[in-house]
Structure formats: structure tokens, C-alpha cells
Amino acid sequence: MNSGHLWVLTGCLLVSTACGSSPSTNKPTPVQSPEVSYDFTTVDNLLQRIAPKHGGAALVLIKDGKVIYRNSFGSHTADKVAPVASASKWLSGALIMTLVDEGKLSLDDTVSKYLPEFGGEKSSITIRHLFSHTSGLPSETRCRNDKRTTLERCARDIAALRLVARPGEEFFYAGVSMHIGGRVAEVVSGKSWNDLFVQRIATPLEMTQTDFFSYGPTEN
């Protein structure tokens, strides 16, 4: 979903508060202990090779609550905010599963139960189809990346599209289906997707510098 253009501190393994705010350097800073000594030469060499191809690279490794490696190459640092793009899909799935855990919806519920506009050939699409990329919906639509619209309006636009396959029969990797899942979550909870993310994922996991707004405020 467009709210799926999630932004997070690069290299912090999506737990951004664990990275701290110390300045990055061009040298690794492994934490040594009497029991364990780490050699990150191979990691350094790998990052040095891939960094020029991607404008830079940064990595933070945390073990038992301690930073054992922190290094940056090129223009990237461990504190740089960057889009995680499709890595937001598993976070979106985790949010949906919190609603499943609470009994507010089932993965086998049809979308039409919550969004009546998904009738006809789309009436058999389930929440499970949406998050397994088997809904039969097209791979892309213009409204998904439109920050000026809302998730509700975009869901109605998607409902008007023709299916490219029968629900449950073919796999099409994309974000359109998850956009619909996000709207279902809003209907079930009575809250915006952004608020749900903050309350159910970001706050409990202390992801204090992770949000959906680096492209500007949006309800989509």
C-alpha cells in the first residue's frame, strides 16, 4: 500500500531505537568481551564491494542488546532515513494478524463482508488471498501511489478494476491487494491505517523513527 512506502533507519534491522544516535564512522566498532571476539573483515569486504553499486551501504548488528558492529560506506550511514519499500509488506501483515488474534477478522473472511463494493467476480476474494498475492487483482493501479487521495477512495477505485485471474488461482506479487487489506483494517477497527501502525506495531516495538510520511502527509 502507498502507506507501504514505509521509512526506517537503514541497517537498524527495523528496530530503530536500538541503533542509538552515535555518529557513524568508516570503521567498524565491534563490542569485544572476554568470552567473544568478532572478526568482521568479510562483512567489511562485502559492503565495500556492493556500496558503489547502490550509492552506499550501512549495517548495524545487535546481539543481546549490544551493538557488535556498526559501519557505513559511501553516502549511507546507519542514521540515514531510507524507504524500505516492499519490506513494509511483512509489517502490514503483522498488523493484520493483530486484528486476527483479537477475533476482529478472519483470514478466510471475504473482502465483501467489509467492503460491499467488492461484489460479483470479486465477492470470493478473502483476506488470505490479499496477503498471499492470489486475489486476482491487477499488479498496479494509479491511485495506490497518490498521496492526495485516501485509502477509502483508492479501495473503491480498485473495486472497479477487472480481475486478471480468478481469486485463489494465480500468484501476482504486488501491493494493490494489500491496499485493500489496509482499508479492511480501517473499517474493522474504526481507525486510520497510520494510527493502527503506530499503536499496534511502531509503539510496542519502539520503532520511534519509522513512519509513512517521508513523501508527505497522506491518508492513503
Describe the structure.
This protein has 220 residues and is α+β, with helices and mostly antiparallel strands. It is 30% helix and 10% strand. The protein is built from six helices and four strands. It has helices at 41-54, 88-101, 127-131, 151-159, 176-189, 193-202; strands spanning 7-9, 56-63, 66-74, 81-83. The strands form two sheets. A two-stranded antiparallel sheet has the order 1-4. The chain has a two-stranded antiparallel sheet with strand order 2-3. A hairpin with a 2-residue loop joins strand 2 and strand 3. Helix 2 crosses helix 6 and helix 4 (151-159) crosses helix 5. The longest helix has 14 residues, at 41-54. The radius of gyration is 20 Å and the shape is elongated. 34% of the residues are buried.
